[in-house]
Amino acid sequence: MRYVDRMGLRLLLVGIVVIALASTFVGFSPVGTAPEVTFGVPALAAEGAKPDIQAQKATQAGAVLGRVLIDGTPVIEYLVNAGWYDGYERALIAAGNIRKVLTAGAASYHFRAGQIGGYEAVLADGEKIVTVDPADAQYNSTPTARLARTWAGNIANAIARAERDAAPPAEPELSIEAGRTRMGDDLVGDVLINDRLVIRIWRGLEGQSPLDRAKGIAKRLRDVVKAGYGPTNLLAGEYKDRPAVLMGKKLIAYVDPYHAQLNASTQDNLARVWAANIAEALDAAGVESTRPPEPAEQPPQPEQPPQPVEQYDDAWYKERYGDKWVPILSVPDGIRIGAARVNGPKHDLRLVQAVAQIETPWKNTLEIDIYIPISTKRPGKFLSRVQGVGVTALADFDLTDDAKPKKSSKKYSIFEPPKTSTRASQSPPGSRGKGRWGLRSHPVFEHR
Predict the structure, then answer these.
(1) Which domain holds residue 324?
(2) Which of 101, 126, 160, 397: disulfide with 405, CB 3.0–4.6 Å?
(3) pLDDT tens profile 218-250
């Protein structure tokens, strides 16, 4: 009879425990199934999203419990104490760690399960968020590794919902983060773009650890991409007289002698390799620049003495063209025998004062007239030829019997030749005696 009473008492106690556990928040995923962490939200959206992260205190059966809530959704619940901290104090620490990494630029896909110091934990961007105590796993009836994945998935999914609300549509999927990798006895820092390694840091600078230095590079990359920079802005140059990788004029990473020697290269060559790695990863992620390429900041150059300005240069095709009418002068008399239209760049055209006509007989049967734009109003022993200007139209004078020039009302151009040819003059070439001269057609040659 006593045995039966003891069994009834035990069954009663077991029932009370089962009811208490059934009313307690113990997990978010069924035991035996690993949670799926939502990825693919742009990193920039995480920086724009500001989820509400709170720690909540509760008591149950005299024990202090703590919950972490993101936008009102529970993501972690501490049912036991750990070390010197009760459940609520542990929740306060976890909530503060989540806010810290989000402020530093972490996104939902940065939260993952891992190990630190031999303990299962939730990590983000190389930082510890929470440690899973074996007692936590026991109360949740699951292994510590699985509970770490559950908590990481809960946090990632809650933050991802806030990111989707703040993310602009049609943005490329981009993850820029720092990671930690053990290489033999060394703990190195990696800079990853969409899980693609672009820079590996073996040694820190100015008291930094390799991971801290990698995190600084990742943070600067996120900032410049958010500001509109892209692969076309990347270059190797100098920043404050030190070899570096730059995005426009903004520093991304210094290249120190240790890493150059480690890679059997020079600092300048390694800077180009790192810049190319980053550019290829950003290009593969679909990142485009909305800023024009900027030259790297160069040290000031010593002033050079002023150089003489060339009258003619390779940029002649950029000049605006024009034309004007100038008199035709006979060589060597300097008599005005007509007018010519010249065409060319305006900075050359203003030098033209007249067109010199040179008559050359050929086998006493043909007279060839050559027209040369000159910069003087009277041809001398040497013609002051103007380069780059050509003759495009002529207008001759008729000479009357009294040797007074009379301007013809007819004009003709090499582009619009006269419809009817005129009779050539009977005067011998080179003569300028009395008599009437008719309008004559002359071949026009451009001189450039």
Answers:
(1) 317-413
(2) 397
(3) 999 999 998 889 888 898 999 988 999 998 889
